[in-house]
Amino acid sequence: MKSIFTIVLSLLMFGIHAQTIPNGDFENWEIRDHFKLDGWFSPSQNVERTTDAKVGKYALKLSNTYSASSNGTKGYVRNLDYSNRKALNGFAFGGEALSLSFWSKHDLAAGDTARIYIVFREKGTYRGKVDFRFTGSTNNEFVNYKVPLEWNGIKSCDTAWLYLYSYIKNKVEGDGYVIFDDVHFENIGERLPDITNADFENWTNVGVEFPSTWRSIDLRQYDRYTSFLSSQSTFKLSGDLAHTGEYSLMVKNYQSGTSARYGYAYIGTEDNDYYTRSFPVSDSFHYLQGYYKYIPDGEDTARVQYRTWEGSRSRSNDYISLTEAQEWTFFAMPIDYYANESLPDSAAIMIYSSFNDTIRGFNSALHLDNLELVMEPTPLTLGVKEIAHKVKFYPNPTEKKVHISTEVYFDACIVRDVLGQIVLSSSHTKDLDVSNLKNGIYYLTVLSGSEAIANHKIIKIAGI
Questions:
Q1: Is the whole model's pTM more than 0.85, yes or no?
Q2: Among 53, 71, 221, 249, fewest CB within 10 Å belongs to which?
Q3: At CA 78, angle to CA 76 and CA 79, rounded to 5?
Q4: Answer CATH for 35-203 from 1.10.3720.10, 2.60.120.260, 3.90.226.10, 2.60.40.3880
């Protein structure tokens, strides 16, 4: 039987040396939360869910944002969607009420005025209104308002259109906010049936989902403007849609007005991270490899681009164009360094759903999985995939040990960190002690001889 030292040494000598791209298997995802008020129409900006509530768990917060170069922005919601009244056309209301009641906490700049405005209609005919405006500050306290309804002679209606604003003029005078809670009608002290979600308890998270350590055009749009692309560009695909593991990434073209634009994603947390050193690398790897599918809409081509630096000096800038592939396909892009002695210490990577002078389709989509830096192309073999499903690892996350459950004999296992460095190795054992490793993500490889028969990501967390 080979010693563990011999196995590890042979792995290093024969080109197994590799470095996983940070979250290049796209197993870890996050979401930039954005909660949309159910049953109401609103813009993305300046409208938010708040736990600073008078009644229940949540309330509605509308904000004013001052701008010296423009009119600024305001917050508003209404229970009417002018572009789709079949979906949202007010609140069914019988018209017996005498007053409107609601709670408010607000701190408005001098000159700014908040408003709650309600229009009552019967079979499309105007019947009455509430138009209540307020200014100033409540000094961080909730105040209850009761406002009489103004009827146009006949106290009868079938629909109420509600509008809530953080200001009513064209220009915002300064930063400020207003919180609304528990908006309802009363009749001589009697509370009438609730207006749909006017207690502001029901919200849906429609935020941007993105792979951890990566940044996408969807995320940039939200972070910069608190708004969304007209059609989503970055998707988490799961189950059978992934090449290996639980998830894969899909980036597709999106629609901007009447034009198609390419979607993109790159490693980093800032807008310019593609142009800077985004993640560390441990060697002058010869290839960037992975698996892809590409379904073009027309004659589009996708692109994966990889750049390296040594200190502040650029050392390479390469890309590969990916053409149509309906099934998962292996690719290996050669890395061409500017100088033979290059030893880069950092890199950046960016992927595009299409990349040519004219983007031809709205739906071109690039699927990616298992991105890795290697010395020689090393596609996953069918044999490894067939055996791997018989190998189980638990607990995961773990604090002290990982148990390897398998009926297949193995000689050894090794653990690499995210830079591809071997941090732990062990001869044949089904209980791997990881207690001395730092908290973080590691990659465990099970070996039969010098052949990898299973690979798995493990998470070390102390105190679980």
A1: no
A2: 71
A3: 160
A4: 2.60.120.260
